[in-house]
Amino acid sequence: MAPSADPVSRIVIENVAIATVDAHDTEYASGHLVVAGNRIESIGAGPAPQGLQNVVRRIDGTGHLATPGLINTHHHFYQWITRGMATDHNLFDWLVALYPTWARIDEPMVRAAAQGSLAMMARGGVTTAMDHHYVYPRGSGDLSGAIIGAARDMGVRFTLARGSMDRSVKDGGLPPDFAVETLDGALAGTEATIDAHHDASFDSMTQIAAAPCSPFSISTELLRQGAELARRKGVRMHTHGSETVEEEKFCHELFGMGPTDYFESTGWLGDDVWMAHCVHMNDSDIAAFARTGTGVAHCPSSNARLAAGIARVPDMLAAGVPVGLGVDGTASNESGELHTELRNALLINRLGAHREKALDARQALRLGTHGGARVLGRADQIGSLEPGKLADLVLWKLDTLAHASIADPVTALVFGAAAPVTLSLVNGKPVVEDNHLITADEDAIARATRDEARRLARITAGA
Question: Which helix (H) or strand (E) holds 345?
């Protein structure tokens, strides 16, 4: 009898340390991974099974750690072309300083900035990216399409949180009047983006969330109707919440309650919601997030850059709140890399007396992988290395000078210097090889982002 046809191409990785980040934190000191098409087919200790058909590539993973691909849960790509500005400001002053510049972005600028942001993350082990884009100046072009196109070309899995603002300076908000949308315009733009781009399938490469920006830039009605729209369309919801003490004061003065109670009053707590930052949360707030399953995108570097404070991540995790990691916009985290956030999350949450056990290396890795998958509503598809899940994974090189004397590979990855990426697979396809993007020209992206940053500066100076 002739052997049965087996058209699925396989990649076999052997002799590799593996941190699966599954429910049991299963790890293998030396194991194998088999990728079949865009799925993980098998994983375990020792060599791969014998007799595998259509193996197109075999990789010796000696000296490497395999982990799930990193998942970014909060970002603002457009800020790539305004890095290094207002470096000594708190959040409100920083926003006031930068909104006049951001209000003049256009489609070529946004596409170049998205390419820069995506390239930096992908090169550092991110396989699922997310962008919260909320600045849609009049006549600026198809900004959502530009961002989605950049992610598609880069080959990364992507969630666009289609943001919006309808509270400008004249209404007591922070953005300039010409940088905001009307209520109806924001809702219509969000629905059109969902209809055009959202893919709810298991192996989806592009998903959309509804994402009004923040309490001080949106009306209560935009929050309420935005939640209704998202749930009618079956998409997730994202916004900024409890980032600063000024926001807490703003909500009490304007709405007579704190941010969490205000969000709950407008339909913005639930297991289909995640919020960025959540720095200033009391016990009641954390309990509300845990009770409703509301997620958090923890952005430690940005919070430090803007002196916003330290989020109570260990307390959130203890209460059962889903928590992932976020780069945040590169105007408040100029490195633009998520793998450095593993280390920063761990170190910043240990600040203070007797907090040496606040977070450990494996908890930090979980935040950047499985935690992010939970926050994006995709934990059954990505975020851990398990048979049947999508083949989004990273091989980190840990046998160089930077890590070679650290015996435990997870400790080396999280506590040590940023590790080179030997291979990054997204949907079973290589995106990074030997620490370089293979889906994009890094030098060309650097030139384009520099040119667009200069053009934006000229436009702003002449305004």
Answer: helix 339-348
More confident residue, 283 or 462: 283
- Which among 135, 78, 142 is positioned nearest to 103, based on CA atoms? 135
How far apart CA 63 and CA 404 sit, in angstroms, is 9
Beta bridge pairs of residue 209: 161, 236
The predicted pLDDT at position 1 comes to 37
Asked whether the predicted pLDDT for residue 4 surpasses 70, the reply is no
- Cβ burial of 194 (10 Å; 0-12, 13-18, 19+) is buried
Token pair of 54, please? 């259509």
In this structure, what are the phi and psi dihedrals at residue 417, rounded to the nearest 5 degrees?
-65, 165
For the chain, the residue count is 463
Three-state DSSP at 360 gives coil
Cα distances from 285 to residues 218, 241, 279, 315, in angstroms, run 21, 11, 11, 11
DSSP H helix total and E strand total for the chain: 15, 17
Contact 243/277 with Cβ under 8 angstroms? yes
Burial of 123: CB neighbours in 10 Å, binned 0-12, 13-18, 19+: buried
* 394: its two tokens: 């990273």
SS3 (DSSP) at 274: strand
- Radius of gyration for the chain, computed over Cα atoms and rounded to the nearest angstrom: 22
DSSP letter, residue 226 = H
Helix H, strand E, coil C: the string for 62-130 is CCEEEEECEEECCCCHHHHHHCCCCCCCCHHHHHHHHHHHHCCCCHHHHHHHHHHHHHHHHHCCEEEEE
Q: What's the pLDDT tens digit per position in 97-146? A: 999 999 999 999 999 999 999 999 999 999 999 999 999 998 999 999 99
Residues with Cβ < 8 Å from 87, sequence gap 6 or more? 305
Residue 5 above 60 pLDDT? no
The pTM for the full model equals 0.96
Task: Decide if 336 contacts 316 (C-beta within 8 A).
Answer: no
Site of tokens 């994974």: 393
135: tokens are 């600045």
Q: Cβ neighbours of residue 126 under 8 Å, at least 6 residues apart?
A: 69, 70, 71, 72, 156, 338, 339
Q: Which helix (H) or strand (E) holds 197?
A: helix 183-197
Instruction: Compute the distance between CA of residue 328 and CA of residue 332 in angstroms, rounded to an integer.
Output: 7
What the block records as the tokens of 169 is: 């300076």
Cα angle at 79 between 333 and 259, to 5 degrees?
70
Distances in Å between the alpha carbon of 372 and those of 135, 139, 148, 230, 438? 24, 34, 20, 20, 25
Q: How far apart are CA 302 and CA 308, in angstroms?
A: 8
Question: CA-to-CA distance for 26 and 22, rounded, in angstroms?
Answer: 6
Give me 131's structure tokens: 């962008």
